[in-house]
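pinging the channel bc i need a second pair of eyes. not urgent but kinda urgent?? the chain im working w is below, pasted from the shared doc
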Amino acid sequence: MTVFSCPVCGERLDKKEKTYACPKGHSYDIAAEGYVHLLPPNRMHSKSPGDNKQMVAARRRFLEAGYYRIFSDKLNELVHRYAGLSPVLLDAGCGEGYYTGRLFESLQSHGGTPRIFGFDISKCAVKAAAKKYKEISFAVGSIFGIPVADGAVDCVTDIFAPIVEDELFRVLKPGGTLILAVPGRRHLFGLKEILYDAPYENEYRETEYAGFSFVERVPVEGDIRLENNETMMNLFMMTPYYYKTGVEGGERLRRAAVLETHIEFDFLIYKKVG
């Protein structure tokens, strides 16, 4: 049974052989890779929103090289602890599926029978995720109008995606778990030292969300050393700095022989109240 809902009427979708369909007759084709497109044209801010094909490929190369594995391992541990081994789980802003796929494999390897769903606004990212991780159901969709039925999931993971508290609250079951990942103060500071004349630390905030009780903050940190410029550029392309760095900063990175940087995530755990 799917958790996806119709973006037009909000009814829960039924998965058939080649389509997802709702009781009111709205139907959505399943792509050859296995994903479904649930982002209406009037909610797309561009012809192809989100990461493009080159950015998705860069992200996959960097993540699969293992540089952020410590974050993936901790996420798996937190889901085990707070949602059990067989949750109905939604990865909000799943990207090309690295964290989603490793989470599914971890839960299964511990004897669980998870049902995992993921969505992202980038069609390129969802296509890549669905092509590789066949056991997971993926959709193109927006965090500002999540294409998932009310109270349908036990756990939501949100790794650097926008935080839209009303939507995250809506899709979780009462008592469900929300796991957010936000950058720590000195995450990628070494990269910013190359890109910017005046590098800055990330803001640290204690954040409360309506309808949720805060459980704990779990910091995870380490250091990486990159000696391959292509790998440095892969990292750069998967960060927000790629959009807002000037030409000079980008050129400095392209000329760099070594990049040493601290990496730091904070996982924030919440429970839905009521």
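so The mean pLDDT is 95. and The chain has nine helices and eleven strands. — does that match what u expected or am i reading it wrong
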